[in-house]
Queue: 2 jobs
Job 1
Amino acid sequence: MTQPSTTTPRFDVVAIGNAIVDVMAPAHDDLITALGLAKGGMTLVDETRAHELYAAMGPAREISGGSAANTLAGMAALGASCGFIGQVSDDQLGEVFAHDIRAGGIAFDTPVRAGQPTTARCLIFVTPDGQRTMNTFLGASQFLPAEELDESVIADAAVLYLEGYLWDPEEPRRAMRRAIGAARAAGRKVAFTLSDAFVIARHGDDFRALIAAGEIDILFANEHELAALTGKQDFHEGIAALEQHVPTLVVTRSEQGAYAVSHGEHARVAAAPVDRVVDTTGAGDLFAAGFLYGQVRGLSLETCLGLGAVCAAEIIAHYGARPEADLRELVADLL
């Protein structure tokens, strides 16, 4: 467990994650089948496949994304002070990403990368039931060098938030390990989101080792990721397997709401009501935004869950993983 720092941080949260531009388009199930895609999942693709899928898309919208960046966008909209570390290339999509994240009030100073590969993109097919089928070309984002990590920025954040998706490539994985060391040396908390079951399939041993070593203070998962990490298909058995090893464990359960346990205290929240589910992209990211916002302000576990539920509900009611409504107004009653 991290020992609290005695100095006041500049940032509430600094996150390390994929710097991705989401390219989103509505699609019917027959197109998903024809393209051989796994509906509702996330698949890594190379640049050639990315071009093929883009050609098959209908009219699309480009919206800056990336899991951890989405979380920061939500936190900044709530009024938190945030910084992002992620790699873009010196190209048009890189400029789009940098502009969007800075326009949201988030500090972003990672130097751009010259040459190939291009900036990462995620091609997202959204079916009428709101399910999103994601196809990600990681591009430049997987070449975030540990050597360029500004440890003073990490030490100046109350929480370091790490995106599990970015654990897959070797270079950013080294950067994140170095960042964990910097955060712990500064007495800051480390939060980690497991991101996807496929990431756990590839790197579960790493994650379990981090947890066993006490390197993770706040762990985010959905119920499928919890099962993949613990090997327990029963939800409550999965919680029991982790709660003694993670100071704060947060598990989302889609329409069944979310559950958290922190230092022996258990809390749950129902899913916030939504008139119509349009697009589930970013639901977990924005849930983390609301929860972390409450955490850095010392709010109760139940209130943190409630904040997460409201933020997630706002996101799934429209296309894209960045908030469109005034989140501060939506959560005013909880605060």
Job 2
Amino acid sequence: MSSQDIAATSLLRRDETIAIALLLAFAGGYLDAYTWIIHGVMANAQTANLVFLWVYGMAGDWAKALHFIPPILAFAVGIVIAAWLRRAAGGRASAISTLVEILLLIGIGILHNRMPEIAGTLGISLVAAMQAAVFTRVEGTTYSTVMITGNMRQAIEGIFALASSGAAVGALRRSGIFTAVCGAFGLGAALGALMTETVPDLALGLPVVALLIVLLRCEAAPSEASS
């Protein structure tokens, strides 16, 4: 690793660390599995929601098609809120958005059996959008915590570059990071499906714990930076 890479690592923002990326990817996969099983929509994958919208719409089944509009709109609202939060809060945006996500998930979990189905869908899609818009980089490289397509592409490209042209070791490290993020997302989806099927009333507990750890790590940054 070059001296520039070492310097960049030492100055790395706490919300761009691998640990936080893995925790957020775990939560992202978990919430997608949860909303698919409980509500029949995706919290994160708006591509899938849009495809289902038009598949059912073109088949003339507008009752099913319209079911996919609320999460798409909620995701859009979440992106706007996150953009405003980044402008208003600056470096604290990651911690504040994580706290909002935690409170929303706790509220949805408590009201799981009482609130209308659409309310849970809207709340979780809002959470997913804020996470996607605020946490966008890991070790300085753009990635996603709520879907794996781009992460998988970068992982495979890194392995190919290393195998074909002897790319720098840093490329292998980045490829490993993206592979780990994809794995964490898959693990989250697997546990999300298991917990939602077995203990639906408590299913949102695990992503809340993951986000609490993220919040604590984000908030630890100022004290460590000053030491």
